[in-house]
Amino acid sequence: MNRLTLAGTALEHFHICAFFNSRDEEYDVLAPFFKEGLEQGEKTVHIMDPQRLDEHRRRLQEAGIDTAACEARGQLHLMTWHDAYLDEGGVFHKERMLRTVDDLTRGSEEPDGGYRRLRIMGDMNWAFMHTPIDEDLIEYEAEVNEVLARNRQPAICVYDVSKLTGEMMIDLLRTHPLTLVGGIVQENPFYTPPTEMLQELRQREADGRAAG
After folding, report:
1. What is the helix (H) or strand (E) element at residue 118, kind and residue range?
2. Helix 53-62 and helix 23-39: axis angle, to 10°?
3. Where are the beta strands (DSSP E) in the chain?
4. CB contact set of 163 (below 8 Å; sequence gap of 6+)
């Protein structure tokens, strides 16, 4: 199998939560990850803020990726938030997104029309357009672990540290087997298996209804 490395670390898990303080830091770390996959003949899908597509293409080009050629042959696929996470009204639907990830990553050794691996990156800033953060997002982050593990394809969820509360960061940490903080990939000691995490979230919901 082709190499799968992020920030100099060989990956064994498929769901990574990446926390960044700036766009420059984000691309310094992630562009080599994308480039590695493209040079190995893999496919990469990036789910982006629609207003940042041109900037994203430019930054990938500056990192040595022939963005236009990769897009033209379908090896680099840029999707917007409204193609995946959000409906036309800007509402997140957990089940829809789980189906989207399953459709993208489903396959045996050669998913997605012959590509041996598919690397997904999701820019999660859409989650901060409305407050409070929808509990469905945390449920999604827990449940998508099973989809990615079953289909054996890697995905990175990118979060802006400055927009996170302490409570949300803890929940995000608990739903990802690997974290990327300060440019370093680490096994996550706070990771909680999906079944256990979902039970806790259901109990929180029940407690909230009882208190209200």
Report:
1. strand 118-123
2. 70
3. 5-6, 9-10, 15-20, 43-48, 76-80, 118-123, 155-160, 178-181, 184-187
4. 125, 128
User: What's the confidence (pLDDT) of residue 107?
Assistant: 57
Q: How far apart are CA 86 and CA 96, in angstroms?
A: 9
Q: Quick one: CA torsion of 22, 192, 197, 84, rounded to 10 degrees?
A: 40
Whether 77 contacts 67, CB under 8 Å: no
What is the reported pLDDT for 132?
A: 57
pLDDT digits (tens, 9 = 90+) for 106-165: 854 444 457 889 999 999 999 988 655 667 899 999 999 999 999 999 999 999 999 988
Separation CA 115–CA 58 (nearest Å): 24
3-state DSSP assignment of residue 86 = strand
**Cα separation, 68 vs 71, whole angstroms:** 5
Helix (H) or strand (E) holding 167: helix 166-174
204, 152 Cβ separation under 8 angstroms = no
Preceding omega of 154 cis (within 30 degrees of 0):
no
Low-confidence residues of the chain: pLDDT under 50: 108-112
Alpha-carbon span 180 to 128, nearest angstrom: 20
Other C-beta atoms closer than 10 Å to the C-beta of 109 total 8
- CA nearest to 179, candidates 163, 158, 194, 160: 158
Assign 137 to helix, strand or coil. helix
